Amino acid sequence: MTRRLVLFMAILLIAGFANAKDLHWKDLPRYLKGKRVTIADGKGMNHTGWFVSTNADGVSIADGRTIEIPRDSIVSITRYPAQSSHAEAFGERMLNFALSPFAIVTVPVAAVVFFAGLPVCVLLDAVDHRDSRIVTIKLLPDPK
């Protein structure tokens, strides 16, 4: 029973990291609103910033200054979550606790608390509708 549970959790974890989405150009503003993005262009450059807007010619992002990346040079768009998940924050806290000066005691305690608390954090993420996945967007051709 325990092996099946561990296998199921591992599959869910791996599936959560591999995420892609197919979108049309007109759907980008709704999907990227308020998100941090990285846009790779045809010259091998990566532009990272907060999504601002799209127009017929390109995408505007801002990170200190606003830049526009031409539509025809976009190779890929990667969307990052707006906030970390409860599970990520919980894992970071347990790691910091485990790495305290008294590691001989804190590592086993942190491991037990982590594995007991992780399902609760996953449920909280589901209730809060937090999407902590990094999503690679593939642009579909415009409908005719």
Oligomer: single chain
| Major beta-sheet overview | 7 strands, mixed
Q: Could you tell me the radius of gyration in angstroms?
A: 20 Å
N- to C-terminal separation? 52 Å
Q: What is the count of DSSP helices, taking H or I runs of 4+ residues?
A: 4
Q: Any idea how many domains?
A: 1
- What does the overall shape look like? elongated
What percent of residues are in strands? 25-35%
Task: List the secondary-structure elements in sequence, H or E.
Answer: HEHEEEEEHHE
Query: Which whole number gives the mean pLDDT?
Result: 80
State the secondary-structure class.
Answer: alpha+beta
Number of extended strands: 7
Strand line-up in the sheet with most strands: 1-7-6-2-3-4-5
Give the fraction of residues assigned to helices. 40-55%
- Point out poorly predicted stretches: none
